[in-house]
Amino acid sequence: MRTPTWTAVYGVLNILAVSVTCLPQPQANLPRDVSTTPMVFAHYMIQFQPPNLDYTNDINLAKSAGIDAFAIDYGGVPSALPYFADYLNRFYKAAEKLDFKLFLCIDTTTMTDAAMVVNLTNYYSGSTAQMKDSAGNIFLSSFETGSPPWNWQTDVINRINTPVTFLPGTLSEDAEYTASQNKGYGPFTWVHPASSVAGESTTDEAYATQRDANGKPWMAGIAPWFFKRMSTDQNWFHAQDSGIWVDRWMNLLKLKPNFIEIVTWNDFGESSYIGPADSKPNSVLTQTTTADYYGNLDHTAFLKMTQFFVRAFKAGQTTVTISPSEEEVFLFYRLQPVNAMGSNSIYPDNSWPLPENASYIQDNAYIVPFLASPATVYLSSGGKPWQMDAPVGVSKGTVAFTVGDQILTASRNINGAVLNKKGPAIQGQLPRYQGNVVAL
Ligand SMILES: *[C@@H]1O[C@H](CO)[C@@H](O)[C@H](O)[C@H]1NC(C)=O
Ligand SMILES: *[C@@H]1O[C@H](CO)[C@@H](O)[C@H](O)[C@H]1NC(C)=O
């Protein structure tokens, strides 16, 4: 038996706990009270629709995971916008019926019309499904990679007929710069481009420090995975590999952002979804030769893990507590070695280079136990046996995978049942390059 390389979640996080207590205390004369009710949102791309344009299943799944609202990524080419307006209307109607909340996250990479942003925000501000904070202010957010062609305050916020809690998006690594821009209610930070979990933590700590110093709430983004192979210049992995999910959740539990947004619920184009992989993708993803490079791979396990992290976050806990009837052991892995190019020339992307940052990606399978009492977990990876002594709570085991079947078992019953999970086999080479993960 081989013992997996441990990601010492607890060791790492104990160190972070110390740095949390060292954060500067809030100053007098804060611009506003930084204490907010912790809430969790999920980023929903309006451009990907659920089967039959029925949002019911997504809403019910999100509700049962403890997610408070969908932040609807809204934007698109002008010809798509009339359709998206219809989808948005259906989405709000479904949410109203199911007592769920929504708010707009304007995607400034494709939205160019400030008047449309104002109109849509005003139009839905009175909906019973509109997400509001405890003061009754409506939420509005954005995804931004540069500055939009408008001034948020004068062209948008001032024209909205009700008070707005505006959380503008940033992809900036620099918390001080973001704070100096002093935009909106507080920043919404996407996963940062740091190449390591430690680098990401440093950036998150800087945002927590700024939040505590200037009193502006902070919304952190968290993603289960990233892989994109849409075109030669949109061809990348996230250099933090598996660190952007379990490790980041544990770190954020310590840093306590005011809000957390899961990025994403359904961005199939970036393989970052936690929702069902049953969407009707948009035109780019439905062209025969570029179809489904994300493989419709099942990410159900990420959604199941979400409920435990969300519960801990909302309770202000820095560890995850699991009852015996909630125990689960999850597994996620890619279906091929990172350097194996696709074999079939019908896929044009097989002639593209490896995705950017492939060199950071390890040929690993990740075991994520959520336990009420310790257990030994076994992974047979392509017939090679591994074992992991998993402690109480959440932990992550990292195994160098072997091509073949991946079979997960345990030394005892998990939640009253024999653990025996087997996902699709890892192949030495696939017809098409595949960098998404399957999670079970
Ligand atoms: C504002 O948006 C609503 C909802 O999409 C739409 O019905 C209405 O026509 C829009 N109004 C204007 C002036 O664009
Ligand atoms: C690749 O990783 C580097 C180092 O972390 C980062 O700066 C860069 O933004 C990453 N590229 C993409 C496309 O994520």
Nearest-integer average pLDDT: 90
What is the strand arrangement across the widest sheet? 6-5-4-3-2-12-9-8-7
* Helical proportion, percent range: 25-40%
The first-level CATH class of the largest domain is given as Alpha Beta
Tell me about this structure.
This is Glycoside hydrolase family 71 protein. With 440 residues, the protein is α/β, with parallel strands linked by helices. It has 2 domains: 37-314, TIM Barrel (Alpha-Beta Barrel); 324-439, Sandwich (Immunoglobulin-like). Helix content is 25%, strand content 23%. The chain has 10 helices and 21 strands. It has helices spanning 9-21, 56-64, 81-98, 114-125, 152-156, 175-181, 197-214, 246-255, 283-286, 300-314, and strands at 5-7, 39-45, 69-74, 101-107, 138-143, 164-167, 169-170, 188-189, 219-222, 227-231, 234-237, 259-262, 328-334, 364-371, 375-381, 384-390, 393-394, 396-400, 406-410, 420-422, 437-439. It has a 9-stranded parallel sheet. Strands 1, 13, 14, 17, 18 and 21 form a 6-stranded antiparallel sheet that branches. It is globular. 47% of the residues are buried. The model is unreliable at 3-33 (pLDDT under 50). Bound molecules: 2-acetamido-2-deoxy-beta-D-glucopyranose (2 copies). One 2-acetamido-2-deoxy-beta-D-glucopyranose is lined by residues 85, 119-120, 123.
